[in-house]
Amino acid sequence: MNRWSIGLGVGLLIGVAQAGPLRLSDVPAEARWWVHFDVDQFKQTAVGRTVLDLLRQPDTGPKLDAMKAVFNFDIRTDLESITACGAGRRSAVVVRGRFDEQRLVTLLKAGDGYQELMVEGRTLHSWIDEGKAKKKGPENARMYGAIHRSGAAVLSEQAETAAHVLRVLDGEAAAQPESAAVQSEFPAVVVGRMSADALPNQQTDNPVARGLTGAVAVIGERGTNIEARLEMTLKNPQAAVQIRQIVDGLRAAALLNSEKDPRAARLAEQLVVRAEGTTLELRLSLPAAEVTEAMRAEMAKKRAAAPAQP
Questions:
Q1: Which residue of 103, 158, 167, 290 sits 20 to 30 Å from the alpha carbon of 54, by its own alpha carbon?
Q2: What is the average pLDDT score of the chain?
Q3: Residue 48 contacts by C-beta under 8 Å, 6 or more apart in sequence?
Q4: Does residue 203 have a pLDDT over 80?
């Protein structure tokens, strides 16, 4: 989705919207997968605060300030949440935040290839994704977006999908049931769920794909640690054992290769794997300070390698 045109700003055709955790009422019942990023919650974590600090530095801050001047939108303060979902080749994104709708729509209409169309009684804006156009040609780079009356932006590569999600938001089409909610024992920044039929057909020979019936994932921060949990539901206990053996093998390989890739080895050390019946759970816990230190070190490395400005 980050390929969509005119940066993030023009694509987000929304007014003022509510933030916070995932709203299952935003996700169509047909969705075979969904992922939600709670940006507001992320900003409250140690990693989030580090990212915001890095985005204010001299090599990034002025660029975002310029973007704000154009769109009246600051990704550091105004973006609240992003929910992506899909089924088969159809996918959509629902974005919530604080935006200057009039300015964004005016800029969008000024772009090349702009169209306005009606689909299922909904007005959609359409434009050419410049990044995709360079790779696939303009005929394969059209995007569709709309402003829902709740203030949510709906974006998709298919006009019919965008219109359908708008119907879901209006309560005219079924949404995900509350039973699909992902439970977490710590404040979640990222949550996701998928079913086995979300996997491409070409992956059916993969042992994980063959044995999987569904999976949920949660990433967040608890205390001073970053926590991640991936829980897979398998077709039978034998599949759970087989996949655990694969995970154990990958972990052993990472540990043996610690001199070449110490970060991967560190993750392997902290990974906890538990198999019980048809459930396989992977948990990872890392000190947030360790992660933020690595982020700052990586940024410093990139700055040192960057050519000097004239």
A1: 103
A2: 85
A3: 41, 42, 189
A4: no
